[in-house]
Amino acid sequence: MTPVVDAKPTAEQPWPVSVLSTKIRDYIERLGSVWVEGELTQWSVSGGNVYGKLKDLEADMTVSFSVWSSVKARIPQDLKQGDHVAALVKPNWWVKGGTLTMQVVDMRHVGLGDLLERLERLRQQLRAEGLFDASRKKALPFLPGCIGLITGKDSDAEKDVKRNAQLRWPAVHFRTEYASVQGDRVVPEVLAALRRLEADPDVQVIVIARGGGDFQNLLGFSDEKLVRAVAACTTPVVSAIGHEADRPLLDDVADLRASTPTDAAKRVVPDVADELARVRECRARIASRVTHHVTREMERVEHLRTRPALATTTWIVDTRAEELARYVARSTELVERMVEKCHSKVGELRGHLRALSPQRTLDRGYAIAQLPDGRALRDAADAPAGTSLLLTVADGRVKATSNGAGPALSDPSR
């Protein structure tokens, strides 16, 4: 049955797909080329052609477009993501595939996109506050006992981080918090996950991972609340958004920026094979140094043993024997001389003592007269007639009686 093309299709007489697709093409072609204004949120060059997205400046609406290489050569070469542009586009409906594309015929700069401008102002503000300074960034632990991971559930980013980390260190442990990584829920869910991991004392480093995306999908990771929360964390934070062309503000404030989730795993976890090789190298170096030190000390001891002082043990006695004999003879001579001198001194003192002794005086014929009370008689008046006296002579004592005082001797020497 041949359908009536101009008639309204019914269930009994539907249009073929080719008719519908052709009518859509004819209807779209009546629109012709139109100028549209928006912000470039994606600008990817492939094979000389450009594929991108143009976002409305106020409403949350985006259209995809393509720029063929022939047109790309005529438009400004400095066009990039974030630019505010006016584009002359021609809608093109592909009849066979049933797809609509916007072919760019011309494109011009209008100015910096509002979104990019806001992000740039926020970037400058955060930089002025010192949140990007290298001095405030915390060092990652050498081997974290527990790694906190914030990523999308069942995402490639999660698999890349865990697989590469376990390949490097099989005993690594993760605590994973799932959150949206694009859309309106990115900021609240990532903030909640960040707070939970920050409160866990076992978590020693936090990785925020996403497998890349266009500029618009990464906007949540430039949110001021999220960026400031990451800056306030006491636990080191690694940004692994995985997008080289665009740098979300999270990359600048994080303690470490990894280019991809795989790179984050390599930066956070050491390679057990490398560490074992380093340990073996250190052990070899220690053994070499100890061996060298022991060998050097053995050579030093051997050198000391070959010296004459240690080669012949009697050399000290042999070299000192003559000197010792000389000292012994000298000491004997000095002692004898000292004894002789002292002997002479004693003899001299004995002679002086004897010369001054009362006994010596008595030996010369003198006597000592003592009164009855024992006092020596010194004055003749003390011994009147009849006084008993005791006379001490050289070889004994004699009792006598005084006859009184006689005439004094004129010459004491008589």
Give a short summary of the structure.
The chain has 414 residues and is α/β, with parallel strands linked by helices.
How far is the first residue's CA from the last residue's CA? 201 Å
CATH-derived topology of the domain at 118-133 and 142-270: Rossmann fold
Q: Enumerate the spans where pLDDT stays under 50 for 5 or more consecutive residues.
A: none
Level-1 CATH class name of the domain at 118-133 and 142-270:
Alpha Beta
The backbone outline, from C-alpha atoms, is rod-shaped
CATH architecture of the domain at 118-133 and 142-270: 3-Layer(aba) Sandwich
Q: DSSP strand (E) fraction?
A: 15-25%
Give the oligomer, counting copies of the same chain as homo and different chains as hetero. Answer: single chain
Number of strands: 13
Mean pLDDT: 86
Sketch the major β-sheet: 5 strands, antiparallel
According to CATH, the homologous superfamily of the domain at 118-133 and 142-270 is: Succinyl-CoA synthetase domains
Alpha plus pi helix count: 12
The ordered string of helix (H) and strand (E) elements is HEEEHEEHEHEHEHEHEHHHHHEEE
Strand order of the largest sheet: 3-2-1-4-5
Supply Rg.
62 Å
